[in-house]
Known about the structure:
The protein is α/β, with parallel strands linked by helices. It contains 21 helices and 20 strands.
Amino acid sequence: MRQPTVASATRRPLCGRFFPDWIATTALRPVVLASHVKPRRSWPVSSFPRWLAVNALAAVLAATAAPAAPAAATVETTPVLVLYSNGRLLPANVAGDRGLHEAIRAPEDHPVALCYEFLDSPRFGGPDFERVFAEYLRGKYAARPPAVIVALSQESLNFVLRYRAELFPRVPVVHAGIDRRILASLAPLPADVIGVPVDYAISPTIELALRWQPRTRRLVVVTGAAEPDRVLESQLRTELATLRNRVEVEFLAALPMHDVLTRLANLGRGAVVFSPGMFQDGEGRVFTPAKSVEVMAASSSAPMYGFYTTFIGTGIVGGSMPSFEAMGREAGNIVSELLAGAEPGSLRLPEVVPQAVNVDWRQLRRWGIDERAIPADAIVHFKPPTLLEAHRNEVIAAVVVFVLQGALIILLLAERRRRRFAELAKEAQRAELAHASRLAIAGELTSSLAHEINQPLGAILSNADAAELILESGGDRRDELRSILADIRRDDVRASEVIRRLRTLLARHEVERRPFDLGEAVHDVGVILASEARRRLVALDIRPPTERLPLVGDHVQIQQVLINLVLNAMDAVVDLPEDQRHVVISVERGREVATVLVQDCGPGVASTHLPKLFEPFFTTKPAGMGLGLSIARTLVEAHGGAISADNAPGRGAVFRVELPLTRNTKSSRRSRHEHQAADSRG
Length: 682
């Protein structure tokens, strides 16, 4: 027979409260199942060599200990006999028992008590043993016969069918973990003996191995020497006969384990190993199938395959396998239906327990098998989890944070873009206002500028008339003509310079950011306003700096600020006597800034007006609009500077314009070489 299917319970039996563990594991083993009762784990089972003596003693102790049970028990349990053919700790039995416990459903007022019994095959067997074991079961369950019998594996089902009439003739039987070909070979089963068969087909696993190792030339099959091993060997020889024309099939049957390991270690390339495991080797050493496969896989020089799920993790690559846990669940579902009152013949059962491809990821990597060849529905064991699988919550949190950060960055960029557009619009508006202010200043200076231009034009005309008279006289007066031409050239340059400065002041242009000398800007302001000062009979005192003061910005806008302040100063002194009309423009250099001071000798500014001087539309002039100083502050602040006003200690007002020197501006750091060149030219 192949590997036993369903596990004996690894849960501590209730009778363990009254008997030592070594007695309890071979005697009465009820485990109560209800919707609120959890199965309990048991201690490892002891060896079974004294089976008859132990069971006899257990029967006596059970009879004497029965009165010790609480007499006031109010919850009646429903016993279900679970019969295994071999050891309770066999991995297949453990997995199947887990599925059985998960599937059985019972009401709280009628919990199910699972009672486990073991034939302990293949170490014990034969007619005499079975008769003694049947007599033991008859006596043990005479008072409380089981409601359902669960037979797990072929040996346990055969035993139940042989002794059912003597033991429990009308109790339904549920079988699990039995190959459908074996069930078909049995005589027609009674109507109340039902279950879901298993298809232990070998060919799907062999086909997987040949597909994953396409260069395979030899298939080595390893089986044991116990009776179940020999039965399985016969089945394998029959099924694998069809492969003779594809690969060489070699059986290592009933050999000592050390011989098997030596043969497997020397297989070389082109070989694949298949084994259902063994219960016993040729020297009589006893194994569990999973343990034997683990030993063989550790020594094999070729990939190894199997068809039991309990072999996954022992070193095999994998195979097409039914699940022992699924077998236990199918049996548990049937038991639940029967306990609920369903007739055995009315149940609609699956034709077979489904198989699934199970593979060990570590062995795939070891033998270089392409993972793309693995079926999409395969169950892959021991594959390292992906980052998302291992840290799902952390990854989701990180993604959420990144998305939020990305959204925030996009919003900030959009806001920055919007603010940039607003700043550009503000700069354009400021440029328009500054241009309008310059036009207003030009209108105010019209008469003085006209006089400033008319003077050189009149001188040019007078010189031209004098030259004409000299030419008409006919004398040789070339020296006088040269002098006249020099005067004409000087007056022309003077007029041209006035027009150039005026044109520069009035022209509409984009805001510039380039190096210029503050001293030159102050000098140009003096030139532009000289005629206006003479027209108003104001003494304009220009005190330029003694050194170059490099700035970065728009020199026209700085000139506009200074012109506005000087004109305001002239307005402040216009009512004073002529000898008291003084306006002083001076420049001071600090450590990081240059300061331009415009001071007059007028009446000063009222203390209540000082905080409002630079606000839009505030003015102390009867015909003023209140935009000049507001525009001046805007232009100065656009250059990173500051403007302020205060009353002088004696009399008059003083306006202070502070502008950062080149080395302290960001623009200077971006164009250091350009500024150094401008300094050298100055």
